[in-house]
Each structure stands twice: as C-alpha cells, then as structure tokens.
Amino acid sequence: MAAISESSGILTAVSKPLRTNQEGNRPLLHGLWSLEVDISDRSKNIVAASNRPTNSKCIYQCRCIILFLGLALWGCSGQQSALEPSGEEAASVAQLFWAMLGGGAVIWLGLMALLATAIRGKLGPIDNRAATQLVFWGGAVLPSAALVGLLGYALWLMPGLRPFANSGAPQVIIEVTGRQFWWDVIYRLPGGVQFRTANEIVLPVGQRVEFSLKSTDVIHSFWIPSLAGKVDMIPGRTNRLSLVATKEGRFRGPCAEYCGTSHALMAVEVTSLPVQEFALWTERRKQPSPGVFAPGSELFEKHGCGSCHRVEGTSAASRFGPDLSHLGSRNTLGAGILPNTPETISSFIVRPDAIKPGTHMPAFDMLPPDDIRSIAVWLKGLE
Ligand code: HEC
Ligand SMILES: [Cu+2]
C-alpha cells in the first residue's frame, strides 16, 4: 500500500485539507464514517477510522440512509415512471436498467471492500511487481470484462427496443408533431381513415402502434416513460418509434428536451384502452362533436379563434394551434398542465401567457367576460 500511495498522485490530491478540526488544527477529510486523514504524518498517509461512530450515531446515519432510499424509490412509481412499465418496450428498458444497476453495485461494492482493506492497512506494503499486477488486473482486465459483459447484454436486448423489430405492420399510425409548447396529433387508421387531435394520445392495449415524430419549430423529445424509450423530435426529420401497451392505464409523457420558456409546461396525456373501447373512441373522433351546435360557436368564430384553431363541424379550420374539435373530453388543458373545466378554459383564453410564458396564443383579456365564459362552456361541451 505504501508503494502505491507514495507514487500515486491521487492520494496526494485527496489528502489536501477539506475541513479543519476545531480543537487542534489538523485537517480532516470527512467521509460517511468520519475517516480521519492526517497529512501531517507523512510516514503513514492514512490513519484508520479513529473516531468510529458511536452506536446512536450509527443508528441515526442508518435512518437517514433508509429515509433517503425510501424517498428516492417513492419517485419510481406512478404515471410517469420508467420503473413501473406498462408496455413491452418500457419493460426492456427497465430490465436493462436493473441489470446495469446490479452490475454497477457489484463493481462498487468490490471497490469499496478493496478501499476499506487498503485504508485499514491490512494489505501491508507490496512491491512494485505486485502493484503492477494489481493495476493490470484490477485496472484493465476487470473493468474491460465488466463493460464488455454489460454492453453485450444491452446489445442483446436492443433489437426489441428498436422500432418494428418484434412484429409485422402496426395497426395504428400516430403522427405527433412537437410545437412550442403543445403536441399536434394525427391518427392514421387502416382504410385511409384519419383525424386530428392535440395534447392527448389514446392507444389500444395489446396492439402495436407506430409513432411518426416531427417538429415544426425547435427540438422536442417524445417520451412516455411507462410505455417506451425516448425519441427526439427534430425539425426537418421524421423519427419513428413503435410500442405495445400491455396494460390499461393513464400515463404522462413530458417533453424531454428543453424547447423554450414553457418547456416544463408541456406534457402529453396518454390513455391505453381495451381494443373495443379504443374503437369507440376513434369512432367518436371521426365525426364532429354533438356539442358543436350549442350556443357559443358564433362567438368563437366572431372573435377570430378560427384563425388559429380547428373545430370539426364549424368554419374554423386552421392548423396553427391545437385542434379543439373534442376539447371537452380531454382530462387536461394546455398540454397536461391544468384540469379541464370551463373556469380553467376561461382563464387560459384571457391570459394564456400568464399560464404558459412564451406561448404563441395571444391574450384575449379585451373581450367581454360573458363572451369568454360562453366560449369556454361551449368548448367544454365539445365531447
Ligand atoms: C394566433 C393564434 C391563436 C389565436 C387567435 C387563438 N389561439 Fe388558442 N391557442 C393557440 C396556440 C398556439 C395554443 C397552444 C398554446 C400552448 O399550449 O402553448 C392555443 C391553445 C388554446 C387552448 C388550449 C388547448 C388545449 O389543447 O389544451 C384553448 C382552449 C384555446 N387556445 C382557445 C382559444 C380561443 C377560445 C380563442 C379565441 C378567443 C383562441 N384560442 C385564439 C393559438 C391561438
Ligand atoms: Cu420541451
């Protein structure tokens, strides 16, 4: 050990004073177990743990670690968790994660055991030849073998993670375009049927779905952690992703690439439904909402909302903003950030920029509050 510590620059660097002991003026390096490093005594660079934790201190530290792990694991479940997979592709990603974590943990534990042995001085002095051997086996052969093993495993899993590897033609093709700060969604179903929606994706359980991912402004990234891996949406390019949802459920897909001021306020709501319910959902989407003829549509048209929005069954047909044809049936408003109620719709119309800074929808705070309310109630009725 002495041979290594004297010739190695690393230990010299570590033994720089990080903190000074109050009583004396001895520099201390504080680790998890308060190991004391004494650099004034050069003959033995590292002094073993002279102030080992007392029992109560140890219990306190253990509690802290358990609390920390508990909090960390708590974040690993829910609508947006890659560790609670509800799709085939997400299951492969989770499997890879656990294998990598296990491999990493074994390597880390081995290293810590070696470090502890070295610190306690149990190895004794070793000669140059032994030190070279240690560096060769521990520093070159072992890491290479571990990395080749883990990489091999990842490559072996990969065909399942790549689009279209597992199956024949997808049943449903969904074109999703990332916009600042919302998602434009077009469904292409067998038989040439297609319709448009926004900020929501509904999937059939057990059927392969293909996503065609685009962007019209900046780079966004499409990621539904519970269902599959992450794919960037790049202007001028179409990226593809395919997935199979294996469970019914509601999931959240945050935009995963910084795309501007309201990047954190841009998520897509995803629901997976049994095949029959999915078919019903698509049936309803192919037609105008029955609520379209209710009062309110004339105000929507009069105030120029149709210059940016489309509502099936009215003259509003612009593709600049989200398609509002069936807005009322969505659970959330403004790309997953607000509950969908007439009140939230009203406040969005009045000051969208106050809710989503940098949004491309202008404020309508100059309109009479009654008009706004009527439009909001009408939009909420578009189921
Ligand atoms: C200049 C274009 C433009 C005009 C005009 C416009 N909007 Fe928008 N609107 C947008 C854009 C862009 C978004 C997406 C905002 C975001 O989420 O970043 C949006 C979003 C919305 C949303 C939320 C949609 C969703 O999927 O959650 C509603 C509701 C809405 N607009 C209603 C209206 C109404 C009502 C009017 C007329 C009073 C109107 N808009 C006029 C561009 C416009
Ligand atoms: Cu983003």
Describe the structure in your own words.
The protein has helices spanning 2-7, 9-14, 55-74, 88-119, 128-161, 275-285, 297-302, 342-350, 352-355, 369-380; strands at residues 19-20, 27-28, 172-179, 182-189, 193-198, 200-204, 208-215, 220-223, 230-233, 239-244, 249-254, 267-273, 332-333, 338-339. It is an alpha+beta fold and 383 residues long. It has three domains: 1-74, no CATH class; 78-264, Immunoglobulin-like (Sandwich), CATH 2.60.40; 290-380, Cupredoxins -  blue copper proteins (Immunoglobulin-like). A hairpin with a 6-residue loop joins strand 8 (220-223) and strand 9 (230-233). It binds heme C and copper (II) ion. Residues 220, 255, 257-259, 263, 266 line the site of copper (II) ion. One of its GO terms (cellular component) is membrane. Belongs to the cytochrome c oxidase subunit 2 family. It is found in: Membrane. Keywords: Copper, Electron transport, Heme, Iron, Membrane, Metal-binding, Transmembrane, Transmembrane helix, Transport.
Give the count of structural domains: 3
Which topology of the largest domain does CATH recognise? Immunoglobulin-like
Q: Architecture of the largest domain, according to CATH?
A: Sandwich
Reading the helices and strands in chain order gives HHEEHHHEEEEEEEEEEHHEEHHH
Strand percentage lies at 15-25%
Mean pLDDT: 83
Kindly, what is the distance between the CA atoms of the first and last residues, rounded to a whole number of angstroms? 74 Å
Shape: elongated
What's the main sheet like? 5 strands, mixed
CATH top level class name of the largest domain = Mainly Beta
Bound molecules: heme C, copper (II) ion
Which superfamily, in CATH terms, is the homologous superfamily of the largest domain? Cupredoxins -  blue copper proteins
Question: Are there runs of 5+ residues with pLDDT below 50, and where?
Answer: 1-53
- Cα gyration radius (Å): 29 Å
Number of separate helices: 10
